Amino acid sequence: MNMKQDLDHQQQPQPQPQPQPGDHDSDQDLPIQSRLRRGLDQQQQLQPADHGSDQDVPLQPQRRPRGFAAAVAAGGGSAVAKGRKEREKEKERTKLRERHRRAITSRMLAGLRQYGNFLLPARADMNDVLAALAREAGWIVEPDGTTYRPSPAPASSIPAAPPPPPPTQLAPFPIRSSDSPLSATSLKNCSIKASLDSQAALLRIDESLSPTSFDSIVVAERDIKSEKYANASPINSPDCVGHDQLMRESADHKANYAGTSYVPVYAVLTSDIINSYCQLVNPEAVRQELRHLKSLSIDGVVVGCWWGIVEGWSPCKYNWSGYRELFTILREFELKLQVVMAFHENGGNGSGDMPISLPKWVLEIGKDNQDIFFTDREGRRNTECLSWGIDKERVLKGRTGIEVCYDFMRSFRTEFGDLFEEGFISAIEIGLGASGELKYPSFPERMGWRYPGIGEFQCYDKYMQKNLRLAAQARGHLFWARGPDNAGHYNSRPDETGFFCDKGDYDSYYGRFFLHWYAQTLIDHADQILSLTNLALEGTEIIAKIPAIYWWYRTASHAAELTAGFHNPTNQDGYASIFNMLKKHSVTIKFMCCGPQASMQENEEALADAEALSWQVLNTAWESGLRVAAQSTLPCPVRETYTKILEIAKPRNDPDRHLLSFFTYQQQLSPIIIQREMFHSDLDNFIKCMHGEASNDVQG
């Protein structure tokens, strides 16, 4: 029985072993269809029949890591951190390239609008530029971009060529007469022309112009811009001089401001009419000067109310008696009044005015705590104004730097409430820094600064250093809590320093962090002051003064602007963030028009460009929706200065028809100047042009 069962068991077919996934020897002899079918059967066998059961599921063979994953497995977190840093660096480089490209595009568009009379839209791009250039060359550009040359007319229908126009018709826009010296603009245009001629093979625009070739023009322009001022100046070129003179000859006939919009003109009264005891020094002399201003049709005057005089002797003890007497005289002549809240000292930078210090009790505090003043790297204290580091520090007899300004403005509003109700006080200008301008005191002549020095950073008092340390700690780099150690001294040139030179540390990670903190401190100070100003002087027009720091403007770093608190290198707009803050407070900006602080040769050596800076500041302010005014830095402008001011006040080539809200003129009380017939005539004609009542004959 047992034997029979064993025989039956041997006769039954034995199950064949299933091939394993890795068994490839038996598969090589099968057709490809059978191998595919067997692979599908094996996958079905590997999948569990019941997903809810607890049976073990065979694991798929793992793939070997490759590339970045293999590097991570081999090197750990260090490779990940290295890759992340590389990506961050590449992002920063991409941002810098994009900023540089936008800066070049912006300057090209500005130059085409200002000097070429191209009516480009506000948000123009390269398509608009190409279309304008093509139309200028006589081509036809359709709205859809189709561009072609006009069909030539038959030979029989071509009229005879008209006689050439006289030379006076060559100028597309007015400038000035031929017998006056060359301007900075003409020199710049001549230099550009010579550089372009030397690159004629690259930059010639002809019938084969295409977007690709225009890209090469932009690249070539970058190289030319960097070499433009290193080459010999072609000032003596006959083409440059002749063209400049011909254009300026026609200016005398076209500079007609009759019928243009009315721009009010204010005169600044000197500070010596009120003494340190807040007494009006010579009322009769003031009346005589006001009669003269009234005869010139001046709209109003600007009077500085000095913190060092009104609250000069004791904290919270305000004496407005001299200003009350002065304002009473001004009402007799029916002149408008603008008042300056002056929280800085006067006469410390060679202005020639009566010296006015900060309040005596503040100076006494400064003897024991010198860190309430701005401090340079060498530890020298600048008493021109209080450090912004104490804006929130109660170091002034229990008050902060912001609170003493607020109390001063509130006292003024209470004392002269009747004049506010009458509308006699038209606007209040708030002193926000050195010289009453929104800037650091980076150019102190008492410290030895002379034009065109780059100045020094003013951030080394203990309160500013504390704020810098907090900012560096928040950034995660506490070792950045220091000022630059290679930024030179007051009279250095940018190329003499490791921080401001081309490709210097100003554009490094640390440099951008420090400059952003330095500029943001300026913005925060103005923001806090103006917030309290709107509380103390509600319903009054508020003015903030913006300086004109135009030397070293044609360098990449804009070193002088950086030390003054404006983070405005070539690849960044340092004024947009400031103007956005001012727009929040509905502030009118007053831009300081540039006077000739040096000769033309010295300005060229300093790579100064006052016109380019004015163009950037004014257009950025207008684009931000701000009201814009201007003030002359010269107490006695010459004729050419009048013409430049008129072109700023009423730009004739501006498609948006921007105008200055008003213009402020630095007036002197000197009888010698008043009695000069030529000066009186020029000033009278200038004011009439601002009022839209006369043509510009000041160059006569």
Detailed description of the structure:
The protein is an alpha/beta fold and 700 residues long. The chain is 43% helix and 9% strand. The termini are far apart. The model is unreliable at 21-26, 48-57, 154-159, 164-254 and 669-676 (pLDDT under 50).
Describe the strand arrangement of the main beta sheet, using strand numbers. Answer: 3-4-5-8-9-10-11-12
Low-confidence stretches: 21-26, 48-57, 154-159, 164-254, 669-676
The chain-level structural class is alpha/beta
Strand residue content: 5-15%
Which secondary structure elements does this structure contain, and how are they paired or packed?
Blueprint: H1 2-11, H2 32-46, H3 67-75, H4 77-116, H5 126-136, E1 140-141, E2 147-148, H6 184-198, H7 200-203, H8 211-227, H9 238-254, E3 265-268, H10 283-295, E4 300-306, H11 307-310, H12 321-332, E5 336-342, H13 360-368, E6 373-375, E7 381-386, H14 401-415, H15 417-422, E8 425-430, H16 462-475, H17 509-536, E9 541-546, H18 559-564, H19 576-584, E10 587-593, H20 600-605, H21 610-623, E11 627-632, H22 639-649, E12 663-666, H23 671-674, H24 677-690
Parallel strand pairs: 3-4, 3-12, 4-5, 5-8, 8-9, 9-10, 10-11, 11-12
Antiparallel strand pairs: 1-2, 6-7
Task: Give short descriptive properties of this protein.
eight-stranded parallel barrel, two-stranded antiparallel ribbon, globular, alpha/beta, single chain, 700 residues
